[in-house]
Amino acid sequence: MAILLTNDDGYFAKGIQELNQSLMSFSKVKVIAPKANCSGLSASITLRKDIHVEKITHSNFIVNGTPADCSYLGLTSLFAGEISQVVSGINLGANLGNDVLYSGTVGAALAGRGLEFPPVAISVAAYEPKELSFIAKLSSNLVQRIRSLEIDPNLLININFPDITENQYKGTKITVLNKLRPTSFPDVVDPSIENPIFQIGPSSISSDASDDSDHKAISEGFVSVSLLDYSFTTSLNLFALDLEKELNA
């Protein structure tokens, strides 16, 4: 059984290439990644349109589609029955707080729920990391440790690294998602024109981050590991039953 490795930065991005080399030290790795950068596409898929796949080697493919397309094609077609875990990354740029709702890195990993091992999304809080090779080596080590634990395979493990070197590594903290302020929409042209153009910028980090938040851990130089539950179900508790009565009244 193999790891399906993907990302949202694109097949030729430094992060996925470094991580591929590190993961191969303990597992077979199948790489399927987008042709172009797909940041911000979350778990979107390509519907009713052709998805072109380019074979690089017997275990490496480039997809003209979304990060989630890559995962689903790997799991259901190209490597059906061969995958025990989906790993997505290393994304250049952090995926903290409610940014995970938009993250293509996290979105690609979502398809791996319910496999033998829980899916892992990996990011680093820098676009030009100081020591990407170390981040990749430690990422591989963390993936191995996760595989050795009895973790619900329906959870998703979201790992964020600060921009550190091996000598600066302090340790790892289990964290919760920090609340971020709404994304801003700065004008990039004169807003007085009839059809103004906008550009969506990154979310703003809340200044009152809790001590156990992912942002707090990163700001203090620790690796953040958050366990995300995407079960999308609610137990029939008393509130749910009261709601049902109200809706049928």
Q: Please describe the biggest sheet, giving its number of strands, its sense, and whether it closes into a barrel.
A: 9 strands, mixed
Radius of gyration, Cα only, in angstroms? Answer: 19 Å
Count every helix, treating DSSP H or I runs of 4 or more residues as helices.
6
Distance between the termini: 52 Å
* Low-pLDDT regions: none
Structural class: alpha/beta
- The domain count comes to 1
Residue fraction in strands:
15-25%
CATH level 1 name: Alpha Beta
Task: Say which CATH homologous superfamily is assigned.
Answer: Survival protein SurE-like phosphatase/nucleotidase
Descriptive account of the structure:
This protein has about 250 residues and is of the alpha/beta class. The protein has one domain (about 1-180, about 210-245): 3-Layer(aba) Sandwich (Stationary-phase Survival Protein Sure Homolog, Chain: A), CATH 3.40.1210.10. Helix content is about 25%, strand content about 25%. It contains six helices and eleven strands. The strands form two sheets. It has a nine-stranded mixed beta sheet with strand order 3-4-2-1-5-6-7-11-8, sandwiched between helices. A two-stranded antiparallel ribbon has the order 9-10. The longest helix has 17 residues, at about 130-150. It is globular and about 60 Å long. The mean pLDDT is about 90.
